[in-house]
């Protein structure tokens, strides 16, 4: 199959490309400078020309709680435009299959955990990332409507839990929890600092999946697309407190300091554990243990840091 992958330079996209079985499919992954998905006309002509058999939509304006709070307009509008443009372009070109990557932020802030796919739109969203979540919900619904309107088109949505891994974003202005912890604890270890600050009480809970595992799940979804539900969570099935994640990274990196808590910082949803019932029925679960995934991500981070030191000499 000829597959168009959007977001191929991002964390999820890079992990999808790293796990692509050579030669099995033709994977076309244009960077945003080549295909700006917020440009409807450019997106339509690109897709019409390429005529892929499938699209995996993994592009987005993505960031942690602080980035979402700082730029709600951009998180709403850019993700809305990208989602609309790629789905409408696919429909116009008659692309038969599309996998849309959603996010666990789509769920209502007070929905019971574990979060089931049917809970989308049953309550108010989490204010700290509402704009992003609205765009995610709209794109998922648009996929549903297109699939229902044309029997030749099947556009499905995968809803991943929080992710981390190689090719993640470590800049504190945009990073999610785990890359932020890795950067802070690594810095404490190298500078000999005795404490690291945690945003909030650390009692909030999150579920994190290794992005390489998600990529394996997405390839499984590609190969068994017809068996895939219209909407399916992608999770690990267990969550941990923010404090637990800080302790896990300290353990992996080998730093024995202590933690302080800045209660003025935003904490977002209390819990965000997705149900893996549909995923287990589909027959896929992630394989990498948390400590091993943190260790691989840390090693990757250190390589990036050494490389950036070399170039700045
Ligand atoms: N990270 C996480 O914790 C989670 C992420 N997700 C979802 O997974 C998907 C990928 O996330 P992630 O890999 O972390 O994000 P990244 O920020 O790492 O990558 C985003 C990608 O989107 C591309 N992109 C951004 N704007 C445009 C544009 N205007 N036109 C074309 N491409 C654009 C970028 O391309 P380029 O580099 O070429 O500019 C980049 O490759 C997103 O849909 C996100 O919502 C879901 C749950 C959790
Ligand atoms: C992936 C998904 O999830 C994102 O929402 P989120 O899960 O709230 O994002 P987060 O990973 O940045 O924070 C997780 C928790 O961690 C706590 N926390 C502690 N200390 C740090 C810290 O130093 N940095 C960060 N970022 N968080 C910290 C923080 O207070 C919060 O309680 C959406 O933005 C959106 O991107 C989306 O789709």
TrEMBL record:
Q: Name one GO biological process term.
A: 'de novo' GDP-L-fucose biosynthetic process
Q: Which UniProt keywords apply?
A: Isomerase, Multifunctional enzyme, NADP, Oxidoreductase
- InterPro entries, per the entry: Epimerase_deHydtase, GDP_fucose/colitose_synth, NAD(P)-bd_dom_sf
Record-listed substrate binding positions: 184, 199, 206
The free-text function statement in the UniProt record for this protein reads: Catalyzes the two-step NADP-dependent conversion of GDP-4-dehydro-6-deoxy-D-mannose to GDP-fucose, involving an epimerase and a reductase reaction.
Looking at the record, the residues that make up the NAD-dependent epimerase/dehydratase domain are: 3-235
Q: Where does NADP(+) bind?
A: 7-13, 101-104, 136, 160-163, 176
Similarity comment: Belongs to the NAD(P)-dependent epimerase/dehydratase family. Fucose synthase subfamily.
- What HAMAP family does the record tag this protein with? GDP_fucose_synth (MF_00956)
**Site feature Important for catalytic activity, where:** 103, 105
- List the active site: 132
Q: What is this protein called?
A: GDP-L-fucose synthase
Which GO terms of the molecular function aspect are on file? GDP-L-fucose synthase activity; isomerase activity; NADP+ binding
Which Enzyme Commission number(s) are listed? 1.1.1.271
Q: In which pathway does it act?
A: Nucleotide-sugar biosynthesis; GDP-L-fucose biosynthesis via de novo pathway; GDP-L-fucose from GDP-alpha-D-mannose: step 2/2
